[in-house]
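Z., the sequence and structure:
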Amino acid sequence: MPVLRFALATALLALAGAAASTAQSPTTRQGVLLEPIGQTGEAIYPAYEGWGPTKDGGRVLLLGYFNRNKTQVVDIPIGPDNTIEPGGPDFGQPTHFHTGRQYGVFAIPIPKDFGDKKLTWTLRSSGQTATVSFWTNPPYWIDFYKNLANGNEPPRLKFSPTGPELMGPPTQRFVQTLSATVGQPLTLSAWAADQPPTIKAETAPGTGAAPAPPRTPPARATDDDALPAVIGGRVLPGGRTAPAPGAGAARAERRGDFRVLWRKYRGPGEVTIADEVVPLFNEGDATKWVEAKTTATFSTPGEYWLRAVVNDSSGDGGGGDQCCWTTAHVIVNVK
């Protein structure tokens, strides 16, 4: 989807200019978005992924963010430093910002008469202010449910064996409410299913040759940072690993056919998740539902939001195409 990628690159450049022009601190660096990222003290940039129709007949605006800190996870409460306006400040955006680029973390449903209205998300962190304005801009239209280049579709997700199936962006603020006790592990269960993507081969003009059978794209290496190291591999700078000969099977084994990721999204205290990434295997059977189970332990009483994401082999953010993954939020009331 070259148009979408070009639009996203243009948006990132625009974000850099917007952040520089709205900075509240005299120490804010110009063009910080395009500079090498730092360990701490960096800005957090809101990101507009795009907009499009949902399966229930509505439309949503999809947003993510880019935390430029390598090691600093940042909490920004809803309010003047984390606000979406007009009509805000709270549109369901995160208050807990993990490091790096986080794609499509929440969606804002919009009415049919939304027209050309614009919303603006403002984030202030480390003395720097970044904003992004977003609306139903035609170049940012997304098909959330199919990658037109290869026919890939998002995995399906549900939170009980007989519960409703979810697919694509989070069209609800939350889909489940749980209760927990401080210091006691809470079991988190999700069920996922996925149709493996294929790439259609084309016949060369004039050759009359039959097309090659479809193939499954290779797993993306960009998601490996959150997964265990490859046994027998050598450590690269930054903690990345290069597999030793014969380690390809081990890499496939730990990645799974698709994966469920659990992360803290909002909340007053620390959340310890036993296995943030749960690899799943379905042997290529799109009808097979597989359970992903882990636990979360909470340090402080209060209301927490957790984000559950199921990714297929296209990886986080769908490899930049904004398809195909599924996201949902779960609320946990901790006593």
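The chain has two domains: 2-140, 156-334. The chain is about 10% helix and 35% strand.

Let me know what you think.
H.
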